[in-house]
Amino acid sequence: MSSTNNSPSIISISGVTKTYATGFKALKEINLDIERGEIFALLGPNGAGKTTLISIVCGIVNRSSGTVTVDGHDINRDYRAARSLIGLVPQELTIDAFESVWATVNYSRGLFGKPPNPAFVEKVLRDLSLWDKKDAKAITLSGGMKRRLMIAKALSHEPRVLFLDEPTAGVDVELRQDMWAMVRRLRDDGVTIILTTHYIEEAEAMADRVGVINRGEIILVEGKAELMRKLGRKRLVLELRSPLTAIPDAFSRYALELSPDGGQLTYTYDNQSERPGVASLLRELEAAGIQFRDMDTQNSSLEEIFVNLLRQDP
Amino acid sequence: MNWRAVPNFRAVWAIYRVEMARAFRTVLQSIVSPVISTSLYFVVFGSAIGSRITEIDGISYGAFIVPGLIMLSLLTQSISNASFAIYFPKFVGSIYELLSAPVSYLEIVIAYVGGAATKSIILGLIILATASLFVPLHIQHPVWMLAFLVLTAVTFSLFGFIIGIWAKSFEQLQLVPLLIITPLTFLGGSFYSINMLPEAWRTVTLFNPVVYLISGFRWSFYGKSDVSVGVSLGMTVVFLAICIAIVAWIFRTGYRLRN
Q1: Domains identified in chain A and CATH numbers
Q2: Which region is the signal sequence (chain A) (predicted)?
Q3: Which of B15, B20, B100, B256 is the best mutation test for A, with the most CBs of A within 10 A?
Q4: Can you give the three-state secondary structure of A206-274, one letter per residue?
Q5: Which of A22, A229, B27, B208 is 20 to 30 A distant from A176 in Cα terms?
């Protein structure tokens, strides 16, 4: 096996670009490392390049330039080793409708070169509540069951990395909860999970780290702890009656910002702390004769960060 | 361990098995309908019209058309089996799994073309058995007969595989078999000897690759052929080589698969 198995990153993407024959640049110079055993959420609006990136790593689409390694195996030179580590659950429900559940899951296992293991396939189907449907043809399954069947196919060959492309798109709440529970179980077994989503709550609930992709570029990669810190922040915005030229020194202990026109004072604070200091700030402002005509508080949610990032991205 | 050196036989077997399973699932379409249409050819050409044509090259007309009929089915079935087998997953999108699997291009071709060719060879043998109910058959060169059968099935399954990858719609999938293969087969001497044609048309016919397939195949039955058997074999191998080259190019460039 590879000598690079101790490297912290299981997937290493460097300088990857993709330009389609139409001239459309789907990916511009992507650099991204996925750490072993983490749940990584790739966020981005529709058409940002999420699926293209996943398709390149999985070998479905040829990249225009750059390199990708999976557990140290180059996806071209060592494609067998690289691909045998990966399970992919694509966004679209694409199954041979006339195959039985049992046949199609065993087919997937064979396709990835694994010896038959009925006990393991049974366990996968039981875990996904598909066991009693094992003889049913895929065409007879409900949408949620088809989604689970796609997951069963991906898990049938015991992958070390699982890609879930928009796993909960069009999935009901109950199934979504089940799926999240399953993803956590897999992670506990040491499987690295990369999920793409445009549901921010999904990324918040699941991910260890979050990457944001927009117009073919990764514009942010951050740990969830860091994001939670941002999530936990709140802003108090005061509209002043008369503009200030500068923030008085007496208020230096507060993290205050003055708008360029001097008419707006913003106080950013941690709303999870015991003493956020809002009350004392307001008392002290009054004492100093600084009057305001309106006030507003804002949460900086991941959603807001996300939207702002996309807006800033020219 | 050098992964590149380890062929994924399990994947070849998995694909091959699925392809064969589909044939048995659609037994009516795959097996029964060609048998019925072959029987109809015998009734119409062999009995109704054939009774007015006495013999060609000393062979009764009914027996004369057997190799051509088998070739007709072999060509069309090889193409439709293989083109459908690879087009269908492209159409429904399940091709993602094949492309993301640790399978080499060669293994993909062996599995799909092997599956399609096996089905059409079985079909050819069924038609042969059906034909023997209508006319007395004797096969002079059984080994060569099988060789032509296998070679043709493989070649045209490869050709079908190419069509399946090239096609962007079901219409395109039908286009080549309908507009090119069927006319070429009918004009390739399935129902007559090309020696019966006027000289000018005979020359034109020699540009039809199907002539060589049918002629060679008929030789393996009756020891008589329109063109020499060496040329027949040579032309079949040339066509096989062209198909292999195109498939190799498709996979090297990712044409309509990975773009």
Answers
A1: 9-228 (3.40.50.300), 232-301 (3.30.2350.10)
A2: none
A3: B100
A4: HCCEEEEEECCEEEEEEEHHHHHHHHCEEEEEEEECCCCCCCCHHHCCCCEEECCCCCEEEEEEECCCC
A5: A229
